Amino acid sequence: MIQMRSLRVRMMLLFCIVVAILLSGTSLIIYSVFSREVRAQLDRRLLEAAEPIVADIVRRPEERENIARLNIPNEFLELRDPSGRILNLSKNMRGQPLDVGAMPAPDSDTEFRTLQDKTRGPLRAAVVSFRIVDEPVALVIAESSNGTEFVLGHFRRVLLILLLLSLSLTAMTSAWYVGQSLQPINELTRQAAELTRRISDAKHQEFHAMLAVRNPRDELGRLSATFNELFVTVNAVLNQLRQFVSDASHELRTPLAVLQGETELLLSETRSPEEYQRALRVIDSELKTLSRIVTGLFTLSLADAGQLRLGEDTVYLDEVLEEACEVATSLARSKHIAIHCKLAREFTVIGDEAMLRELFLIFLENAVKYSPPHTEVSVHLEKENDFAVIVFQDQGPGISEEHLPHIFERFYRVDAEDAGETKSGGLGLAIAQGIVRAQAGSIACETAPNRGSTFTVRLPIRTASLAAD
Known about the structure:
The chain is an alpha+beta fold. The protein has nine helices and twelve strands.
């Protein structure tokens, strides 16, 4: 039944039950100690009252007759022999002896007994054994325990009231505290539901609401902080995904439209061989564009998922970079652009040769594509501490400041007069960044309008033994 209730109710019930058990146990212990002490005080009072009477009778045996003249309120005295026969009674007993049971053995220790007398009510009695000359006798002195029971009854009522008040205060405190403690969870649930609703909404907007972190050192504070990070990450991923789908659709629409137009044109009527060749060249070019886009998207998806696996081969970095420069030279020659290489020789690293070649071609083709004719592209390779530093420098128009933070975003384009990246349908620098990150390296860009751009790639140099580890 309790498991079906809310977490707040379960926590309150558990807290109240535990506190009730602790308070009840504490109250029982306090009452037990208090009642024992109260009854012990009554026993001591009886013993203190019996001692002078016993002392007088022992000194002067004839004083035992004086017991019959004693009339102490709420205090009853008897003198008996070991067989229980009554030798004398106090005056206030009016000839009605107490039912104290069997007498203790002669010279035994004082015994205390609780009596229930029909006429006098509850009594507490002390049976004191002593001798008058050589005759063993026992003095029975009893006192009403109504006062003691009244004090104990009042104390029980006070404890019960305090217990109920404590439980009520505990219930209210636990309700407030549990409510405050669970408030971040309630807020988290509300915002998670809101985030879910906005995710499913076609008109998705960024979700900026954040959970309040009251105490970053406790569990709920760390949970709130973690979910705040999750909200930010989910928003960023959703926006990136939506933008990516939109941009990918836009990039794929153009070559597909060209392919559809060319095929419809060819099928509309009979064409000459020259027209078929021209159309096929257009189709081949667009298919290559589509292939580059799809390949780039696949590479980026692997990089995003952390599944981009690079080879662990010994690569002569200078040779790979030199080959990439030779491939880019044919494109540069058509624009009368010279590519100057300054490469450190016999430069070996552990990496994926094909991916490194693709990385270098991205920067070279971008530099050539956006550099004006009759300019130069410089490529430098050098070793700096434990890093291989590759620098690609062009003399193009550069990249304006507002575009610079976005150049590594997929499908991000800038106008030709601003310069920027555009290889593989706007995926070039995004692919390059994915490859460099998989290689545990970094990319930096220094640029200014009309002063060209310089891309610096830093790749960690790993020996074969480190790569094997």
